[in-house]
Amino acid sequence: MQTANRDPLLLAWLDGFTEVVGRSIAWLVLLMMALQFAIVVMRYAFGLHSVAMQESVMYMHAMVFMLGAAWTLRHDGHVRVDIFYRKLSARGRAWIDLLGTLFLLFPVVLFIAISSLGYVKSSWAILERSPDGGIPGVFLLKSLILVMMALLLLQGVAQVIRQVLILRGRAPGNTPDHDEVI
Fold first, then answer.
1. How many CB atoms are located within 10 Å of the residue 8 CB?
2. What is the pTM of this model?
3. DSSP 102-159
4. Where are the domains of the chain?
5. Rounded CA gap, 153 and 176, in Å?
6. How confident is the model over 112-121, as a mean pLDDT?
7. How far is CA 18 from CA 25, 54, 160, in A?
8. pLDDT by residue (tens digit) across 145-157?
């Protein structure tokens, strides 16, 4: 059942999925900070160094940024030049967001996904490992590119649904929750 004030089921599911992934991946930031602290203590206090530990920080960093991109899109956190955007009506912002999603986000995401398929596939073909003897899962790290693109596509679909609902007057407009200084 849908009412004028409720998001359609698909939109709610897509947004919910993005929220779960984004909030889950955010916990890696704490783990990453603790591990980096341990690495520094080990290196400077005890003279010990671990390539695998250092690489794991890099892997977590990549996961936070790549898997958190869709969550950032969901919360309108990506950088934008909004000199005019914030002064527009909800419908005006919806048009800009809809056109941006259709003509910028989708083509760029599809281009990156298609052009990185061979890169990821060749890494999987040899089960690429760290050249420094660290984590033996470089192929998994490279796979994050495709996962990121899939998550961005899913959130892009949610964005399109939301903007169409706003244009039809069936959802509240998106008001930027930040104040930009011009």
1. 15
2. 0.86
3. IIIIHHHHHHHHHHHHHHHHHHHHTT---TTSS-S-HHHHHHHHHHHHHHHHHHHHHH
4. 9-77+87-167
5. 22
6. 98
7. 11, 28, 15
8. 999 999 999 999 9
